[in-house]
Amino acid sequence: MITKIQLLLSASGEGQINQITDQLALEWTRIKETSPDARHRLAVRVPGDPTASVPQDGQPDEVPEQPSFDVVFEIRGENLSFDALCESVEGIGERLGPAVDVHSSAALVGTEHEIVSGSERLFLNMVLRRLPEWGRANWQAHWIDHHAAEVRENVSGLQGYRQFHADENASMAAAKSAGLAIHDYEGTAEGYYSDIDKFLETLSDPEVQKDTGFIDHGRSVMWLYILQDSD
To answer: 0.90 cut: is pTM over it?
Structure first.
């Protein structure tokens, strides 16, 4: 079982992304020394991110402003404990300094499930919240059982698809440890693509665009990223 922590970091202004990624490289060196079995991923939003232009059924006509989540930093491994993952990022928000808007940044801890095998450098990270009529346990069960089966059966263009199910208490602890404000997403759905054309082709599929009735689109976020570093 893959457990992981995913930090979703919003830059405080233009030109700060390189400063953030440089500091995260130092953070990974530190983490690797104390957790030699851990692996990591570092990704940044694609310049000119086209995601906002992709229509999705169920989206409100006017979507509230969402966090930019310019950088994704992830520590992952086989059966790493939630406590160890939280400890690995302790104080990271303070060390990133003014380059990061900690009030618009998030930490999630949980388990990853591979639904469609494959991985590419380009991936869509859909950071999800549930509709209020759904309980958290029922929502996550529907996501992994029903929705995953629909994706496998009906969406042909994915070159990899994973669900990352966040643990509410561990995510709260991780956000506090890291010094970031947000923790209350249900998790992330990650779709992988070889290039922008493949991404746009896949997301134009009506099966991908349709509203499946369990995601709160007005409070969820999806951005397109390119992987910078991983192991």
So the answer is: yes
